[in-house]
């Protein structure tokens, strides 16, 4: 069952429900620990589907797991720094994976207009977000938040170009990035401004982001295996 997309969705739905029940019953007392359990279980699903075949995608998932483990000790400045570094490395590894796949993509004027629009929109969102929470940020995290946001914008643009390759799984890649972006936004507002109810949205978008990371990895590996067999 876990090898089908429906199976992955079913497991994800159960884990989202598990997260919601934990938040509702215990408020945020075990929020970070529950996150780790959910990410670890999805990592097992990732491994069960043999997605570890691709080193970069496997490394990205490991970084997501490390970020969530560090999140347990986020009140400590060192671990808050590590959490954001792991998140940043997660996006960098995804860029490392997807950039070489776009060598044959030709960029049109409309594409450039779209890239500029997405970049300006992203910069505006980052500015509003950081301006809203910067009074609660510890010294040294501001710059890391800006870098994190800029990398997210870059990979969004790259994901847009990736869709031009004609690979049907590229839409999963774009969707997982959008889901993680929403998760980051709700996480920042929820934690730094004290809006605890946003934790439901954060967990939903993050868990779905991991779900589509698995679905994309499966699709990409299937394509790679097919291309390899064709070459033989």
TrEMBL record:
Keyword Oxidoreductase in annotation: no
Keyword vocabulary terms for this entry: Membrane, Transmembrane, Transmembrane helix
Domain of life assignment: Bacteria
This protein's name: YhhN-like protein
Transmembrane domains' residue ranges: 7-24, 30-48, 55-73, 79-100, 112-131, 143-160, 172-194, 200-217
